[in-house]
Specification:
about 150 residues; alpha+beta; Sufe protein. Chain: A; 5 helices
Amino acid sequence: MTQLSDIYSNRILELAAAIPRTERLAAPDATATTHSKLCGSTITVDLVMRGDTVADFGQSVKACLLGQSAASVVGREIVGTTETEFRALAGTMRRMLKESGPPPGGRWADLAVLEPVRDYKARHTSTLLVFEAVERALDEIKARKP
C-alpha cells in the first residue's frame, strides 16, 4: 500500500501552487460547483463552449492539495478539449482511482501524479471534484440544447 506521504509529492505541491485560469468568467455558458463533505473542498467552474469544444474556462478552487493539483492540470489543458474527450478523461480518472486502471496519458499525463490516491478511498472525492464540476456544467449546457 502507498504511504500517505507518497501522495503529497513535490510534483503535487508544484501543481497546486500553479493553478491556472482562477478568474471566474463574466458570461459563461454554464457554471457548476462541487463540494466534498469529508474535507470541505469546493470547486466552481465556468465553461464557454464553441460547438462541442471548450473555448474558455474559469475556476474557483478552495480545495486540498489533491483537488488543487487536479484543477491545475485541468485548467492548463481544458481549452480546446471536446466534450467527448473530457468525459473520457473523467472516466479514466475514476477508473484509475476506483478500479486500479491506468492513468491518463498524452497532454493529461501530469494527472498520473495522483495515482497513489487510489489506496486512500477517502481522498477520491476531493481528487475528482474538478471533473465532476466540469461534467455538471457540460450536462447543463446539453440540457439547454434543442
